[in-house]
Amino acid sequence: MENVDTSxxxxxxxxxxxxxxxxxxxxxxxxxxxxxxTRAKNLNVDMTSTKLKVVLKGENRTIIEGDWYERIKVxxxxxxxxxxxxxxxxxxxxxxxxxTVLKGDQExxxxxxxxxxxxxxxxxxxxxxxxxxxxx
Length: 136
Hints:
By secondary structure, the protein is mainly beta.
């Protein structure tokens, strides 16, 4: 069987030694490699609005740790184990573009990020106004 790359898209993000990540204006997706066969119950994930720490239980080994680049909405953010990856779906606390996921990690050039928003993410009035504009 052929090896398949199960990495997430790095659109508007990057690949680092620690993780792959992508982002939109409101969310960030992060993929962290974990040892094969690791299940969710084998991990201690401590995720707050400002910090992240993931420890592999039994080995008491820290997989990843640091301060988020910006605040997240913890109650609207999730994590899951997918094959040999730990995947975070983070909701940003404010609409902005991140230069990295964890402070101190390699940063991207934020001026090259697509920060457009889909029309359906705006309120009804804004959608109606923008759809009625004609270009001559």
